[in-house]
Design a protein that fits this description.
alpha/beta, 60s Ribosomal Protein L30, Chain: A, Alpha/beta knot, 11 strands, elongated
Amino acid sequence: MENNNQNLNFIYGKNPVIEALSTNPKRINKIFFQDKISFDNRLKKIMELAKSYGILTKFCNLNNFSEEKISHQGVIATISPVEYIDFDDFMQNLPKEGFKKVIILDEVSDPHNFGAIIRTGACAGFDAIIVSNHRSAPITSTVEKVSMGAVNHIKIVKVNSISAIVDYLKKEDWWIIATEVLAKDNYFDIDYTDMNFALIMGSEGKGVSKTLLNKADFRVRIPVNFESLNVSNATAVIVYEAVRQIEIKKSQK
């Protein structure tokens, strides 16, 4: 394969390709296998699924696929981009029953953090990840790889102004929770169970902007003994505290 594919949208690795084939095969344009590779059960499954959906396959040298060295595990798929959801459409199509919960990312730019947060949000049953058009990580092959296919299981909403979206949510009786290193409240002091809420997580270097902090109903911190957690780890900690509280409340009914 010629080294001219750096601008393609692609996913790589056995599990991400299987996940895409299983959940949204229409996104996949073509699947490339490493030439002369020995097929294990997962690669066999990929080939079988590709044939069943009529997806073209090809054997070639994958080491020249990208300018970056990637752990492709013998398979790469070129794909159509993930479609972002319009915010108005997202709000109109939310189910009427139950409390809603979303994660808002304030200029999170690292693709590994973005992918990990997508995976956390999908696994925890959050309704969406909301990102800005500006200074946010796009959904790249790295994001898809780190998310382990979770991009196909949660809505990703792109908006022009996070600040405007927060204002709208507040008017619609959503509660806004923002993270701040110097906050008085710990993340586990908040009751997440009886409200629609948006959790704002800040950028890797600056954290949540002052504008958004001033709009928050709650500011929370994660107590740590050494510096601070990166944004994807911090998101997972808070998200699963919310899940823990919600599950406990369900069991008490």
